[in-house]
Write a structure and sequence with these properties.
alpha/beta, seven-stranded parallel sheet
Length: 353
């Protein structure tokens, strides 16, 4: 059985589900930079039980989710058949990238969607340098793979279809969207600038007759409410955290899902909303939204900084009588994105199947 070392920053439920499935086919060790994140609810982070070998570096904490320890060298020198860097731009994994190149040991880099490398500024130059170091690549989504090919050219790229959902869950979610009257707009995300929640709030204030529900702001909820002057907005509800089953109910009963991200590699909430057939409006700052909508519903991808474009898109989807067709498209599209098939693509890359 092949020995695989996968390096990641922190444990999150959707990755634990993926690793549990992957570990059925290989001797998997996941090396985490640190145990806990400062910006995620601990109940959410620990909601899935790991069934693979886990190692924590437990070094210096960097930012909200990263860490560093020279102990990483010990594991890089061990006899693994494959090594995967899951967060190529974290300090620990940039160090691992350089070290593996020096000792001439091959490794994969994984990208959870779009890589957003544009222009020739210092940041983009450094990104290209670290990206080019791997022998092979794993990347979520066909659109993102095309972006990567422009940087690494003829190197081997394996595309997979990123998801937090198992096949059985997809079936259950598709059946759960009932025909009763839907109400309100759902927005899910942490409160950080790249998530664009401020744009969604401004849109909500200009649409006072539509109820907006913001979920997932966690321990930054009070700051979110204060900085965006939400207290006196009667059509805005803020919920810091919901359990998985309660969140599914929100996807099921909302009329529309909005993702206002300025720039994020993927955005698994797109997968989740699509699996329920919930109509989606997103900015093109989300890799998942580009992947799901650009084929047929590109008109529902709006400028990340435009309140006006977001409002116009909301008004159109809110009033059109073709939401059934849109819902059916999203459910069908979501079937391609599941954990089991994602694992299969990884196994092919590792030459296990």
């Amino acid at each position: 059985m092949k020995k695989i070392l996968y390096i990641s920053n922190i444990q999150v439920p959707y990755r634990v589900k993926f690793f549990n499935e992957l570990s059925k086919y290989c001797d998997l060790t996941v090396l985490y930079e640190r145990k806990n994140s400062t910006n995620r609810d601990i109940k959410w982070s620990k909601s899935e039980e790991d069934k693979y070998k886990v190692i924590f570096l437990n070094g210096f904490k960097i930012g909200n989710e990263n860490g560093f320890s020279f102990k990483i060298i010990k594991y890089l020198l061990e006899d693994y058949d494959e090594i995967v860097l899951g967060c190529y731009n974290s300090f620990s994994q940039m160090f691992a990238n350089l070290f593996l190149r020096i000792i001439r040991k091959k490794f994969f880099i994984n990208f959870d969607g779009e890589i957003f490398v544009d222009g020739n500024n210092i940041k983009s130059i450094l990104k290209r340098f670290f990206i080019k170091g791997a022998k092979e690549y794993l990347i979520a989504g066909e659109c993102a793979a095309q972006s990567l090919k422009k940087i690494v050219k003829n190197k081997r790229i394996y595309t997979y279809y990123f998801s937090s959902i198992l096949k059985q869950e997809l079936i259950e979610n598709a059946c759960a969207r009932k025909k009763e009257k839907k109400e309100g707009i759902l927005v899910i995300g942490q409160y950080f600038p790249f998530k664009g929640l401020d744009i969604a709030v401004e849109s909500a204030k200009k649409l006072p007759n539509i109820k907006f529900k913001f979920i997932g702001t966690g321990n930054r909820t009070d700051l979110f409410i204060k900085e965006n002057n939400i207290k006196d907005s009667n059509n805005i509800e803020v919920i810091p955290f919901l359990k998985k089953e309660d969140l599914k109910e929100e996807y099921r009963k909302c009329r529309l899902f909005v993702l206002p991200s300025r720039q994020e590699c993927w955005g698994l909430v797109i997968n989740e909303a699509a699996s329920f057939g919930t109509p989606i409006i997103s900015t093109y700052g989300s890799g998942a939204a580009i992947e799901f909508l650009s084929e047929k519903y590109k008109k529902y991808l709006v400028n990340p900084e435009s309140v006006e474009e977001l409002i116009e898109a909301i008004k159109e989807v809110w009033t059109i009588d073709k939401n059934k067709e849109y819902s059916e498209y999203l459910i069908e599209k979501s079937k391609k994105y599941n954990i089991e098939d994602s694992v299969k693509y990884h196994l092919k890359a590792f030459e296990i199947i």
